[in-house]
Design brief:
two-stranded antiparallel sheet, 14 strands, 45% strand, globular
Length: 215
């Protein structure tokens, strides 16, 4: 009988180890975000197939660090919840947006703390792979930091599209933060010689117009 009990305890222990880790679910609703870089609004809709999060970011300041923090509510759930996140980023500054770094953690502003390496709160490497319309594909899937760079960037007054996935476990305190840090590059200034040539060309056209009038 003792051997049977021992086997039952071992079997129960193995089942516990093999059971899926608990994960958090983000309740439906709107989640505003803000920071030194601009504002955001995330609309979460949990469907029976996949959890979809529509995110819109508007960067209004190019001054580093241009940061937007969005805090999400996390409700404990007994199944793993992977979120698909289609996001639009609008550049309302006078400079070109050349990179976008996303971080997962807790807190906001100077109190933000990046989730530790190996945490189940992470960006997905696949399904879907992180992509963008104006920058290169995201690098860092499977970790707590995801970076988009390269490509043509997002020009002033334009909007870029991004797609990524993230896995949300049960988070202590019931909240986690998605931080986004944008890097901007000033637009090229015309060379002095180009400005002079343009000015001479304008004067030449003006002189030609005056000569035609005098005739």
């Amino acid at each position: 009988m003792q051997r049977i009990r021992t086997k039952l305890f071992l079997a129960a222990g193995l089942l516990a180890l093999a059971a899926p880790a608990h994960a958090g679910i983000i309740p439906n609703g709107n989640y505003p975000g803000s920071g030194s870089g601009g504002t955001a609004l995330s609309t979460v809709t949990n469907s029976s197939f996949i959890n979809v999060d529509q995110v819109g970011k508007i960067f209004t300041s190019a001054t580093a660090p241009a940061v937007i923090d969005t805090v999400y509510t996390d409700t404990p759930n007994s199944t793993v919840n992977a979120y698909l996140v289609p996001e639009t980023v609008t550049n309302s500054t006078g400079q070109r947006l050349t990179s976008l770094t996303l971080e997962l953690g807790t807190g906001t502003g100077t109190s933000f703390v990046l989730a530790p390496a190996g945490s189940q709160l992470q960006f997905l490497a696949n399904n879907p792979p992180p992509t963008s319309s104006n920058l290169g594909n995201g690098v860092g899937g499977g970790t707590q930091t995801l970076t988009y760079s390269g490509g043509t960037g997002v020009a002033p007054g334009h909007t870029g599209n991004f797609l990524y996935g993230l896995d949300v476990p049960d988070v202590a305190g019931g909240h986690f933060t998605l931080r986004e840090i944008a890097t901007f590059t000033p637009l090229p200034v015309p060379e002095p010689s180009s400005v002079v040539l343009a000015g001479l060309g304008g004067l030449g056209l003006l002189g030609l117009a005056l000569r035609r009038r005098s005739r």
